[in-house]
Amino acid sequence: MGEQPIFSTRAHVFQIDPNTKKNWVPTSKHAVTVSYFFDCTRNVYRIISLDGSKAIINSTITPNMTFTKTSQKFGQWADSRANTVYGLGFSSESNLAKFAEKFAEFKEAARIAKEKSQEKMELTSTPSQESAPGDLQSPLTSESINGTEEGVTPDTTQHTEPRAEPSHNALPFSHSSSNINKHWEAELEALKGNNAKLTAALLESTANVKQWKQQLGAYQEEAERLHKRVTELECVSGQTTVIKSQKTELNQTIEELESALKAKEEELERLKAEVESANDFQSQKDSLTQKLQDMESRNQTLEAQLSDLEQRLESNQQEREAFRNSLRSLLELLDGKLFELTELRDTLGKLLENS
């Protein structure tokens, strides 16, 4: 019958980083089926796991292997033939205990089969020096072992620039005009800042929408491929246990993809709402810009009126100065006449006295 599965479970699969030899590298995006296989023709036990059509675990159990529990839901073993260390993250402690029990059972069976084979064939071989490193600790938390992932949603906060309030104090025309200019210049700068922020948010939202659409298309293609794969597996006869486990895995993958698709659609709706809000801000900005232009034209009109008034005031001051000069000349002339009249009176008085 060849190689047949004898025990299966589901877990997240990891391998040790070949560069650091300390950190774990996930080899599956989600929980996959991990199975023990037995080859009755060669008396060989193997641990095999597939992620789609890719074999992410292909480890032959040898008598000197050791399965080590590094946490309540995580275990590991070293495979010197593959020159790596495998790690499995289970959803519960009972699944880990069951897997470890089967590992010990099949390891003992492999040892017995090896001893019998050596006694019968009298072959000499160098046993492989395989042992799980005792100081290797899992860097994963219980959440990552259970397959839960937390996504970071950027929190978009809109900051409003403070607006300068116009002064209510009574000022001369020139100072009032200058304050109005400063006020509207500050208003314009605030609008420019808000416009830049809204433009950046709009560009980011557009890029995110394009990215989500691409991912959505990829998920849809993956779902169609998985549906076809399920149909093909249902048509294949034999190896019922493996086919059922793969079908269950594919159905779970489809459910996960549908959940992800729903989440992406909700994200698209949220981004559309943000784009509409950005358009509203743009309309408000255009309205304020129009008001600013109207105020600038009024300001120019007031400045023209002020200049005309200043010219008229200067002309009036010149006329008043000329009038004052005329009055001063008349007073001087009147003083001379009065002095002459006084002298004439005195002369007439003297003549009268003499006569």
Report what the structure shows.
The chain is an alpha+beta fold and 355 residues long. It has helices at residues 93-121, 142-145, 173-235, 240-354; strands at 3-16, 24-26, 32-39, 44-51, 54-60, 68-69, 74-79, 84-89. Strands 1, 2, 3, 4, 5, 6, 7 and 8 form an eight-stranded antiparallel beta sheet that branches. Strand 4 (44-51) and strand 5 (54-60) form a beta hairpin. The protein is rod-shaped.
Topology:
Blueprint: E1 3-16, E2 24-26, E3 32-39, E4 44-51, E5 54-60, E6 68-69, E7 74-79, E8 84-89, H1 93-121, H2 142-145, H3 173-235, H4 240-354
Strand content: 15-25%
Overall number of strands: 8
Structural class based on helices, strands and sheet pairing: alpha+beta
Pattern of helices and strands: EEEEEEEEHHHH
- Based on CA atoms alone, the radius of gyration comes out at 48 Å
